[in-house]
């Protein structure tokens, strides 16, 4: 696989929603209104990974809990652009932002069926802090946390 070049830039809700609709793991992507409700009045970040002026990935996070944690809420990379370091770059950008804004940790939630996301989070320094068990177990929610050093 040939490595692509890409860069990370600030993005918009419309861009994040458009990309989320192209991520096959998202069964029922949120619409613009949900993003507005979640982000309004809160410290938040929307970033886009772009390759040759084409959006290929995104990440959205915000101050969900009102404590010292930054919640990384939505994100993904288009399947044909995976394994290029894009998700890692998006996460690093978001962590740098969170630290600069005074947050001391990043929290994320994923489903047990998203094995690639779980592997990525654990290999990136996240630790499991809670599990909301569901039936079937593939739908269980896993909460992870990473302390920002």
Question: Can you describe this structure?
Answer:
There is one protein chain. By secondary structure, the chain is of the alpha+beta class. The chain has helices at residues 13-20, 32-39, 86-100, 115-123; strands at residues 7-10, 44-51, 54-62, 69-77, 105-111, 127-132, 141-147. It is globular. 31% of the residues are buried.
Strands, helices and their partners?
Layout: E1 7-10, H1 13-20, H2 32-39, E2 44-51, E3 54-62, E4 69-77, H3 86-100, E5 105-111, H4 115-123, E6 127-132, E7 141-147
Parallel strand pairs: 4-5
Antiparallel strand pairs: 1-2, 2-3, 3-4, 5-7, 6-7
Please sum up the structure shown.
The protein has helices spanning 13-20, 32-39, 86-100, 115-123, and strands at 7-10, 44-51, 54-62, 69-77, 105-111, 127-132, 141-147. The protein has 149 residues and is an alpha+beta fold.
